Amino acid sequence: MALKILSFLLALMLSLSLSGCYVNPVRHLASDAALLKVGESTKEDVVVFLGEPDEQQVIGEGVEKWLYRDKNMSLFEKTPLLGKHIGSPEYHHVEVTLRNGIVAECVYSSTDEDDMNWAKDYPWQEK
């Protein structure tokens, strides 16, 4: 009897500790976007592989642009007060253009917050 209770408590603690690890779904925009085939993949395929878009734009009749964004930060970059001095987050973007429900174009890009710091390297330039 005591062994059953101990086993139940151990299983309960294990399941509760593992469920605490899940915070939010992980997006892998680069690999997911690579699954799309221009001229073949449908709007439904895009939703299956990438999920619902972060933003939708209607370009013209039968033409839509779906935008996906993701921001990756390391544990150290998430640290309050110190995180912004340790590193810089990576931003991932995917633009999917749909014509009549079929993927016409899929563009992936990735930038780092430090990518634009070169503009601050020239203090002699007038603003």
Structure, described:
The chain is an alpha+beta fold. Helix content is 28%, strand content 29%. The protein has one domain (26-121): Beta-lactamase Inhibitory Protein, Chain:B, domain 1, CATH 3.30.1450. The chain is built from four helices and four strands. Strands 1-2-3-4 form a four-stranded antiparallel sheet.
> How many strand units?
4
Percentage of helical residues? 25-40%
Strand arrangement across the biggest beta sheet:
1-2-3-4
Low-confidence stretches: none
CATH level-two architecture:
2-Layer Sandwich
**H/E series:** HHHEEHEE
Percent strand equals 25-35%
Based on CA atoms alone, the radius of gyration comes out at 22 Å
CATH C-level category: Alpha Beta
Would you give the CATH topology? Beta-lactamase Inhibitory Protein, Chain:B, domain 1
The main β sheet shows up as: 4 strands, antiparallel
Give the structural class. Answer: alpha+beta
Query: In total, how many domains does the architecture comprise?
Result: 1
What is the CA–CA distance across the termini? Answer: 78 Å
* Shape designation: flat
Instruction: State mean pLDDT (0 to 100 scale).
Output: 80
Number of helices: 4
List keywords for this structure.
single chain; 127 residues; alpha+beta; Beta-lactamase Inhibitory Protein, Chain:B, domain 1; 4-stranded antiparallel β-sheet; 4 helices; 4 strands; 28% helix; 29% strand
Strands, helices and their partners?
Blueprint: H1 2-19, H2 29-34, H3 43-50, E1 55-60, E2 63-72, H4 83-86, E3 90-99, E4 102-112
Antiparallel strand pairs: 1-2, 2-3, 3-4
